[in-house]
Write a structure and sequence with these properties.
Keywords: Amino-acid biosynthesis, Methionine biosynthesis, NADP, Oxidoreductase, Threonine biosynthesis
Bound molecules: nicotinamide-adenine-dinucleotide, L-homoserine
Number of domains: 2
Number of helices: 12
CATH topology of the largest domain: Rossmann fold
Shape: globular
Family: Belongs to the homoserine dehydrogenase family.
Largest sheet: 7 strands, mixed
Pathway: Amino-acid biosynthesis; L-threonine biosynthesis; L-threonine from L-aspartate: step 3/5; Amino-acid biosynthesis; L-methionine biosynthesis via de novo pathway; L-homoserine from L-aspartate: step 3/3
Strand content: 15-25%
EC number: 1.1.1.3
CATH architecture of the largest domain: 3-Layer(aba) Sandwich
GO biological process, one term: threonine biosynthetic process
CATH superfamily of the largest domain: NAD(P)-binding Rossmann-like Domain
Distance between the termini: 21 Å
Mean pLDDT: 96
Strand order of the largest sheet: 4-3-2-1-5-6-7
Helix content: 40-55%
Structural class: alpha/beta
Low-confidence stretches: none
């Protein structure tokens, strides 16, 4: 039986949900996936940090109502956050990075990933910053250190768009994509269509765990811009930076815009897209678009996301599923760990052959 020791960096909605899954499903994973997860360290800006080489009880971590600096009360705990020590020194096989996304330079999460990879630890992350801004360098660092850098949850939470496109559409010749890539803004537009005002709809999205720490990133399109960069670089072989992608969000849409669209049999959606141009260059954009109800993206509601991949050999292939949510995103982390486990198993099989 394989046990992966994991260290959680950030203990907010997503990593708490992963701890919940561990508490509820480790036995099932042992049976069905061939491994179990053991939390050996946690570090959080608000709660402090803790290392326990034998493992922390996931249920205790979730149920304890820790105040600021609360990890200081635990054996091996410290009221201060100490990401660098935790990442470099904890006896972890995998660092689970789920701190705030910084859309400007990806820090400090880029450094968290770098410290982990340099010390021979795998990284799984749902943080869009390091992936959009430094994926190439981090992937190279992972390869140089014989470990993996996995980030399925950075786009469409647990819906497997990155791995699905890479593994099962290889050779289909992707030409571009367009999609609804932000759960919060899609949820907000739907709630406004039902008559709720913008601010209350954003508040609901925050309560449901969909929104970024600063929801401006959701409603101004910055979050979608990062996702367009991630998909374009990963799937279209581009080398885009966030500032290369034109970006407009939904905050300029009024209740009357939304009402008028509905009366005319259409719906506003925030669409992120990218295309390979005839000269081989790849461009990307984020903008609200008024779509007829017969458009495939018009019926995608709530925090659901969808991306339509335009391929040479198959035409459009559309992937749809949850785009945000705590458990949904924690599942993406599990799927990354499954990928690491499978890669390890196939490496062992190759050595034995
Ligand atoms: N919630 C979702 O639906 C979702 C989906 C996909 C991706 N993501 C991404 O996953 C990450 C985590 O999301 P979340 O919903 O858990 O966010 P959250 O705001 O609930 O939690 C983030 C946690 O990280 C901690 N933190 C922030 N900076 C830190 C630092 N420098 N060191 C240590 N801890 C730090 C905060 O104290 C907080 O507890 C974000 O980057 C987000 O963009 C979230
Ligand atoms: N805030 C993001 C989380 C998923 O990346 C959203 O609403 O889509």
């Amino acid at each position: 039986m394989t046990v992966y020791n994991i260290a959680l960096i950030g203990f907010g909605g997503v990593n708490r949900a992963l701890a919940e899954l561990i508490a509820a499903k480790n036995q099932l994973w042992e049976r069905d996936l061939g491994f179990r997860l053991n939390i050996v360290a946690v570090s959080d800006l608000y709660l402090g940090s803790v290392i326990s080489p034998n493992g922390l009880d996931a249920m205790t971590l979730i149920e304890a109502k820790f105040e600021k600096g609360g990890f200081g009360q635990l054996s091996g705990g410290n009221a201060e956050t100490d990401n660098e020590t935790i990442i470099k020194m904890a006896p972890a096989d995998i660092i689970v990075e789920a701190t705030f996304t910084n859309p400007k330079d990806g820090e400090p999460a880029v450094s968290h990933c770098r410290w982990a990879l340099e010390t021979g630890k795998h990284v799984v992350t749902t943080n869009k910053g390091p992936v959009a801004i430094a994926a190439q360098a981090l992937k190279a660092l992972a390869t140089a250190n014989g470990v993996r850098f996995e980030y399925e949850g950075a786009v469409m939470s647990g819906t497997p768009v990155i791995r699905m496109a890479e593994n099962t559409l290889a050779g289909a010749e992707l030409k571009g994509f367009e999609g609804i890539l932000n759960g919060t803004s899609n949820f907000v537009l739907g709630r406004m269509e039902s008559g709720l005002d913008f601010a209350s709809a954003v508040k609901e999205a925050q309560e449901l765990g969909y929104a970024e720490a600063d929801p401006t990133a959701d409603v101004e399109g910055f979050d979608v811009r990062l996702k367009v960069v991630i998909l374009a670089n990963e799937l279209l072989g581009a080398n885009l930076k966030p500032e290369d992608v034109t970006c407009k969000g939904i905050s300029g849409l009024s209740a009357s815009d939304i009402e008028q669209a509905a009366k005319a049999g259409s719906r506003w959606k925030l669409v992120g897209s990218s295309v390979r141009n005839d000269d081989g260059s790849v461009t990307g954009s984020v903008a609200p678009r008024r779509l007829g109800l017969d458009h495939p993206l018009a019926g995608v509601n709530g925090a659901t996301n969808a991306v339509s991949l335009d391929t040479e050999l198959l035409g459009a292939v559309t992937i749809t599923g949850p785009g945000a949510g705590r458990i949904e995103t924690a599942y993406a982390l599990l799927s990354d760990i499954v990928a690491i486990h499978s890669a390890g198993a196939s490496a062992i099989a190759k050595e034995a052959a």
